[in-house]
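Why run this: before we spend reagent on co-expression, it is cheaper to look at a predicted model of the complex and decide which construct boundaries make sense. The entries below are exactly what would go into the expression plan.
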Amino acid sequence: MTTQAQDAGRDPLVRSGRGLRVSPVGFGKHAILLTYTVIALFPIALVVMNSFKSRAAIFDAPVQPPTADTFSLIGYETLAKRGDFLGYMGNSVIVTGVSLALILLFGAMAGFALARYRFTGNRLLGLYLAIGIMVPIRLGTVSILNIIVGLGLANTLVALILVYTASGLPLAVFVLSQFFREFPRDLEDAARVDGAGDFTIFGMAARLARPAIAAVAVLTMIPVWNDLWWPLILASGRETATLTLGTQQFLGQFVSDWNAVLAALTIAMVPMVALYIVFSRQFIRGLMGGAVK
Amino acid sequence: MATIDRRPTTRRRFSWPLLVFLGPAVLTYSVFMVFPLFDSLRLSLFGPGGSGLGVFVGLQNYVTLLTDPLWSPRFWGALGNNLVFFAIHMLVQNPIGLLLAVLLTTRVLRGRAVYRTLIFAPTILSVVIVGFIWKLILSPLWGVASGALDAIGLGGLYGPWLGLEGPALIVISLMSVWQYVGIPMLLFSAALLSIPDEIVEAARVDGAGPFRIFSRIQMPLIAPTIGIVAVLTFVGNFNAFDLVYAVQGGLAGPEFSTDLMGTFFYRTFFGFQLQAGNPTMGATVAGAMFVIILLGVCLYLFGLQRRLQTYEA
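The model came back. Tokens follow.
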């Protein structure tokens, strides 16, 4: 899929024979892009690198990679003793995983209904569900806290899951209903002739919608995983802290222990960076709305 | 050939499957998003009373927020800071994003996907992590920032910016720009890629240079995306909270100089240190934020409407 885009890019080069020599324009382009890439990555690399160094080496030569002499895991040892990063990560995985599953399931079902069924108020309902794309759910915080406390769900992961599911649904419904409109009518008719019911047809359509579902999953996952607001307000206890909140609290406590701080930052980056390395194409495609093949 | 028929198929007025499909989404969304938004607006019309709900005070809370000597400086301060925060994103983040997108969508470019992936990487990180990374880098204790400035001969410019009232807000804004520049970059890239090659090629054949092609062809054709990026930036910026909270704490120091609507809302509603939380005033701040965001979105929709009309004329 990527080769197509790359081929399109190389085509004129092959035809005209230009561009094999490094032109000044080409050089300038790469110089700018390379500079910006360094700006984007240097801070991250700096933190990761220094998290593996002794305290003295962190301050003496910050930009030097760890050597045999300066290598140290002292920050990670503090983390293992004083932090509860495995617990935080577990909470984040549960909250993000369950929210994502609910958003995708509910969102696909509602998107399918809006795209394939004619019923009174279809358009109005679509509009109603779309409002949430632009209005941030944080503005309802005062009332949400009342509701959560009223339900006895304060300081539980369930509270976070409910709020994230509600706030993620508008975009999911919108994107997936667009996609389900393209589901071929012939396929549906053929399935109906074979005796398939509504749910079977939904299953077929959902399987075809996998690329769109993946894009929605990525778009939805980043803000949920990284959120600080809702854990802070709804579930700030140590047992329910997500990775973002746990890291924030740990950093506040250990602010002067540079080894521990650098190690905590590195550990907190690991899950998202690992996911990004594996799924970078889906991440980018999700945000570019399928423009990149 | 199978043609795509966009008309909905099933014509029944009501069916169980329909209810099953729509029920969970509509219910969750209504209970935990739509209802709280309206209920919060309702709460902003009440004052603290003797017991339970309190008393209806109409728009009095909003009057207090805008004019009371205790509240109004914080409100206008946060609003002003937020406008600066937004302006820096519009003037720095989006132009850089556009420049990178133009460079990344030129026809001949090696390593396109690699650049795109690497430049986008900071966007996926938590704001808390990003804020702290930059806090360390800018720290006078570590000296990385001052060392870097020294290396390019600008060492004299360095200062403990995060602790200074003027520069702190600018530095915080630039941290956010650094993290999110990948989003306009991708949105602009998608728009640029959707311009048919023939148009650009025709202009090139006619002797137009890259700058002329950009200003006369690409720029007008991606105008709708510029609007979308602007409104997304606006909504995101007026909802921002995490970065300031992570870097400067809930008091948005020094002297509230980095206070945004989000941090002001948090302190008002939830309380911070010596300040007690105040739900009704919190709801009032949220109501004000709602109006501001609505104004921004309406301005965008109105502008878009007018532009579409001029195209038709």
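The radius of gyration of chain B is 24 Å. Residues 30 and 36 of chain B are 8 Å apart (CA to CA). Bring this page to Monday's planning discussion.
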